């Protein structure tokens, strides 16, 4: 069984994934795979440089993530162009990672992705778990963690599915508006339900 874990920027997906991992559940991170597909030498990086120009490359030939971020979150067409280059490659790699993890015999596995619904990755999973927080909390946590300014944080939130639409597509929801202790209790309960769904006894 594959559980898709999604939520907007800084909603708490990685924090939730770490809590599941502490209970023996492995995860694949779409943001991490998105970095792998644009590493130096990868065809996606060549395509990005051809389309966006050398200004999105660092002097040593890597991707200048900040420069590209400033372009794509100010221009929906540019963002769609970037997604056409990266998303099919991200999907293929995610499928390979998930297959490998499942072959290792985990009770179930997580696919953690900010764009689970937007990019059609939900077709790869059995259930969708949404991490829900108010937008203002997302903005505050993004600014505190990534040091991006408030306008950029708002532009990123605006480029993602709305909170209402995401919740409408959820099978399960974690409310992460309170503290991390509240989060851990919700993870424990979901882990118990997911294990039961695959015919296993509750974990620790
Ligand atoms: C634009 C890029 C270079 C910015 O890199 P940067 O290091 O600043 O941010 P990072 O990759 O850590 O992403 C931070 C967050 O931005 C949001 N985000 C990223 N890409 C997108 C997008 N195309 N649409 C909406 N939100 C996005 C996600 O919430 C993500 O967690 C990078 O995000 C990217 O290559 N995006 C396209 C690939 C993609 O869609 N990734 C999302 C995972 S499927
Ligand atoms: N319940 C909480 N209370 C306070 N801070 C929290 C809580 N949950 C997460 N955070 C903090 O908010 C920030 C975002 O959390 P996290 O990195 O887990 O989100 P994410 O959804 O994985 O983000 P992204 O997809 O943008 O990388 C982190 O700095 C994290 O420590």
From TrEMBL:
<dbReference type="GO" id="GO:0005737">
    <property type="term" value="C:cytoplasm"/>
</dbReference>
<keyword id="KW-0173">Coenzyme A biosynthesis</keyword>
<dbReference type="InterPro" id="IPR027417">
    <property type="entry name" value="P-loop_NTPase"/>
</dbReference>
<keyword id="KW-0067">ATP-binding</keyword>
<keyword id="KW-0808">Transferase</keyword>
<comment type="similarity">
    <text>Belongs to the CoaE family.</text>
</comment>
<comment type="pathway">
    <text>Cofactor biosynthesis; coenzyme A biosynthesis; CoA from (R)-pantothenate: step 5/5.</text>
</comment>
<dbReference type="GO" id="GO:0015937">
    <property type="term" value="P:coenzyme A biosynthetic process"/>
</dbReference>
<keyword id="KW-0418">Kinase</keyword>
<dbReference type="GO" id="GO:0005524">
    <property type="term" value="F:ATP binding"/>
</dbReference>
<keyword id="KW-0963">Cytoplasm</keyword>
<keyword id="KW-0547">Nucleotide-binding</keyword>
<dbReference type="GO" id="GO:0004140">
    <property type="term" value="F:dephospho-CoA kinase activity"/>
</dbReference>
<comment type="function">
    <text>Catalyzes the phosphorylation of the 3'-hydroxyl group of dephosphocoenzyme A to form coenzyme A.</text>
</comment>
<dbReference type="Pfam" id="PF01121">
    <property type="entry name" value="CoaE"/>
</dbReference>
<dbReference type="InterPro" id="IPR001977">
    <property type="entry name" value="Depp_CoAkinase"/>
</dbReference>
<protein>
    <recommendedName>
        <fullName>Dephospho-CoA kinase</fullName>
        <ecNumber>2.7.1.24</ecNumber>
    </recommendedName>
</protein>
<feature type="binding site">
    <location>
        <begin position="10"/>
        <end position="15"/>
    </location>
    <ligand>
        <name>ATP</name>
    </ligand>
</feature>
């Amino acid at each position: 069984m594959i559980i898709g874990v999604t939520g907007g920027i800084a909603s708490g997906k990685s924090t939730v994934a770490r809590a599941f991992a502490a209970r023996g559940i492995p995860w694949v991170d779409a943001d991490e795979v998105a970095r792998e597909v644009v590493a130096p030498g990868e065809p996606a990086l060549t395509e990005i440089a051809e389309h966006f120009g050398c200004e999105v490359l660092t002097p040593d030939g890597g991707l200048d993530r900040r420069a590209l971020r400033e372009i794509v979150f100010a221009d929906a067409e540019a963002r769609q162009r970037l997604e056409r280059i990266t998303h099919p490659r991200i999907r293929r790699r995610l499928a390979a990672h998930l297959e490998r993890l499942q072959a290792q015999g985990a009770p179930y596995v997580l696919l953690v992705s900010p764009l689970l619904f937007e990019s059609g990755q939900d077709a790869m999973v059995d259930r969708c778990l949404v991490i829900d927080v108010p937008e203002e909390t997302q903005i505050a946590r993004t600014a505190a963690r990534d040091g991006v300014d408030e306008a950029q944080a708002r532009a990123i939130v605006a480029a993602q599915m709305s909170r209402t639409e995401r919740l409408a597509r959820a099978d399960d929801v974690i409310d992460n508006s309170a503290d991390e202790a509240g989060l851990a209790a919700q993870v424990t309960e979901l882990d118990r339900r997911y294990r039961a769904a695959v015919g296993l006894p509750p974990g620790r």
